[in-house]
Design a protein that fits this description.
With about 170 residues, the chain is an alpha+beta fold. It is about 40% helix and about 30% strand. The strands form two sheets. A five-stranded antiparallel sheet has the order 2-1-5-4-3, sandwiched between helices. A two-stranded antiparallel sheet has the order 6-7.
């Protein structure tokens, strides 16, 4: 090997180390819970600090888990099937997860395939949307109750759309 070849190899090695350091920084210090699992076995092979804090697991516990351990019994088969189908594709979906204390949370997960430690894997970024879901349910309930009250009182309402110059009347107004 020539001097130039060795210098090219060293340069490539340095770039690889820098890239790995950047990845670690983005993964470890991400404020959102993240995990990496092996595609075939669904074994969890890495989680970030945010995952451990949010879910209440220790690093040792997380390293012994498979992806389906995060799901309630009624979703285990479904997530296994989805995990098979999404290989090679980016994925975004809503699910329910169990934390270490068995608290159920609603999540929005975004994932894609990666090679991690020479293994076919998948990285997932998790957003806890439990509070958002509670608010959505409260708004739906409130709307339903308002409609019922209007119906019982034989009162209606009208909304005017300034852009289209159209009025939208509730059923009670007819």
């Amino acid at each position: 090997a020539s001097l130039l070849d060795i210098s090219d190899i060293k340069n490539t090695e340095n770039k690889l180390r820098e890239s790995e350091a950047n990845y670690r920084l983005l993964f470890e210090h991400n404020p959102l819970p993240m995990l990496i699992y092996e595609r075939g076995s669904l074994k969890m092979i890495s989680v970030n600090e945010s995952f451990l804090k949010h879910y209440g697991y220790t690093a040792e516990q997380a390293n012994q888990m498979i992806l389906t351990d995060l799901y309630p019994k009624n979703l285990k088969t479904q997530i296994t099937e989805v995990a098979k189908k999404i290989q090679g594709h980016a994925y975004v979906g809503e699910w329910r997860h169990l934390k270490a204390d068995k608290t159920m949370i609603d999540i929005l997960v975004t994932s894609h395939d990666i090679i991690y430690e020479n293994r076919n894997a998948r990285i997932a970024v998790i957003n806890d949307i439990t509070e958002r879901k509670k608010i959505e349910q409260a708004v739906l309930l409130s709307e339903k109750q308002l409609k019922e009250a209007q119906h019982i009182a034989k009162l209606g309402n009208c909304e005017f759309d300034h852009k289209s110059k159209k009025a939208i009347w509730s059923d009670e107004m007819y």
